[in-house]
């Protein structure tokens, strides 16, 4: 989708308020779209950003005709709804990982990108994107007919079956899905970096 490509290409938006990233703006669309109406305070809390920053973000969304404000709260325009539906059809809801990861990061989040295994080469591009967005560790996995893979490295279902089983049970992927897991020193970085890797995978070779 062209709108997602345009948003993802803009690395950072600057203004009178503190800067925010394209991924934070995309996440704002997801949050607004997930509710019939989204209050500004609730959105600010869920984004984990300051009120001034969120105000600037909303002005940007309005100027791009992705959202509008009513007395009840924030809503998406039809253009925003189209973007939200594309995102949620392609990328599953971010989940806090509840099993032990092979790194020491205290906060870990994961997401599934549907039917995208054939887009993954080695996973380096997606891991790099996660790191650029705050991750201290990242893992790119593909779920194929013969098990869970770390692309061009190993079949984890064979070499690390216990870990592979935990990943599969937790994320419940379908064949040809990609699972992205990131770790960071705070929750927001873990969440945003996982979404950033997912968006990179979706738009990078679209």
Give a written overview of the molecule.
The protein has 206 residues and is of the alpha+beta class. The protein has 2 domains: 2-88, Winged helix-like DNA-binding domain superfamily/Winged helix DNA-binding domain (Arc Repressor Mutant, subunit A, Orthogonal Bundle); 91-204, 2-Layer Sandwich (Gyrase A, domain 2), CATH 3.30.1360. Helix content is 47%, strand content 20%. The chain has a 6-stranded antiparallel β-sheet. A two-stranded antiparallel sheet has the order 1-2. Helix 1 crosses helix 2 and helix 6 (124-132) crosses helix 9 (187-204). The relative contact order is 0.16.
Task: Describe this protein with a few key phrases.
47% helix; Arc Repressor Mutant, subunit A; 206 residues; Gyrase A, domain 2; 20% strand; 2 domains; single chain; two-stranded antiparallel sheet; alpha+beta; 9 helices; six-stranded antiparallel beta sheet
Q: Judging by the overall fold, what is the CATH architecture of the largest domain?
A: 2-Layer Sandwich
* Weakly predicted, low-confidence segments: none
CATH topology of the largest domain: Gyrase A, domain 2
Number of domains: 2
* CA radius of gyration: 17 Å
- Terminal CA distance: 8 Å
> Can you give the mean pLDDT?
92
Q: How many E-type strands?
A: 10
Q: Helicity, in percent?
A: 40-55%
CATH class type of the largest domain: Alpha Beta
Q: What is the count of DSSP helices, taking H or I runs of 4+ residues?
A: 9
Q: Which structural class do you get from the secondary structure elements?
A: alpha+beta
**Going across the major beta sheet, what is the strand order?**
5-6-10-7-8-9
